[in-house]
């Protein structure tokens, strides 16, 4: 990072940015807005003072919900007077009488304006058993109290890893229990890179789609195949991508795939009322009556329910305006559908990523047709049985090689001096992945190999003829 000028502007927090708030292992995605109250972990504050600071800065919540950057020298102040340590914890009784400060005393200290570090130091000074604990027990006690009394929050730049941690920790059902290490393998197995054309079918709140767009860096094209009435992109918005990233994103309803393959997909403009081909916008504008040509209805002025004057012409103009707005929205949807269809008609996609709550087998068999030969695909499922069915179907159908069905096991380790050991709590599973590569198949050769040529009967007929002559003689 450069020190001078605006070279570090991409690393600074700006108003309108989407950021990630972190406290401990808890994350939350918010947008920087002026004078907007943010509630995070039972605390409220404003993000106005964070504008202009660098990302990954830790702030302390002071009175009035304002943020103040934490100085590095304050981080170790709570442990400044904890040099005396014990050698054994067996004689320490956890009876709740070792702490002299009551809950009311702690609330009084908060009202006096004491910071979290100072309250922790007060708790240490008024504990009768703290200095008898071992060094490890003292560190554990301080970490526990910091989590409870420290009013700090760290502002991070959104990434697919942080987004996956946030969803998996708070709402894993929204992302089909997709773990961040599994997401990283999907991006690698699908060979997602800048300049490629990737098909994405997912029902993970836009997390997988955002991860693909982040990996591509705004170069190439992404076609989102979505079920239902419209694409879901809640997670994509939290990434805060620049405008040119969205220019590479297309969406196509999966219910129209069969029509596209059959060549019957109609993307011509239609009239929303009659269903016929709509006129050109310029022709429609000329057909509208001009304001100066309307007759004078001043004598026939009526009043509507709100007491305002209204005529039949006014109501007609309102209906025409609504119809024109509806026609404009339909035209915009038609253009998007035509642009996505043009991307798919080439049948030359470079990768396919599937991660949804639906059964993946029919979706995979349908979308594999849009991939070029020697292109990778990857399918995620929380359960193994649907992918086993996909594996068997692909083996029977052919056209793919290097099929692999994998399960990833992940465990976190605490790495500290003389205290390195696996964490007691860990994720039960990260789902299953089916990956492979498409190949071009020669159907005519397969047909010939399945139907062997009939044997010649000439060899068997000649000995029979000779035998017949011998018997006649």
Automatic annotation (TrEMBL):
Major location (coarse): nucleus
InterPro entries (UniProt xref): TRM6
Localization of this protein: Nucleus
Keyword tRNA processing assigned: yes
Record-level GO cellular component terms: nucleus; tRNA (m1A) methyltransferase complex
Region of interest (Disordered), residue spans: 69-99, 266-334, 441-473
Coiled coil: none
GO BP terms in the entry: tRNA methylation
Keyword annotations from UniProtKB, A to Z: Nucleus, tRNA processing
Any matching Pfam family: Gcd10p
Compositionally skewed regions (Basic and acidic residues) per UniProt: 71-99, 268-280, 312-334, 452-473
Function statement: Substrate-binding subunit of tRNA (adenine-N1-)-methyltransferase, which catalyzes the formation of N1-methyladenine at position 58 (m1A58) in initiator methionyl-tRNA.
Oligomer status and interactors: Heterotetramer.
Annotated family: Belongs to the TRM6/GCD10 family.
PANTHER family (alphabetical): TRANSLATION INITIATION FACTOR EIF3-RELATED (PTHR12945), TRNA (ADENINE(58)-N(1))-METHYLTRANSFERASE NON-CATALYTIC SUBUNIT TRM6 (PTHR12945:SF0)
Official protein name in the record: tRNA (adenine(58)-N(1))-methyltransferase non-catalytic subunit TRM6
Lineage, highest ranks first: Eukaryota, Metazoa, Chordata, Craniata, Vertebrata
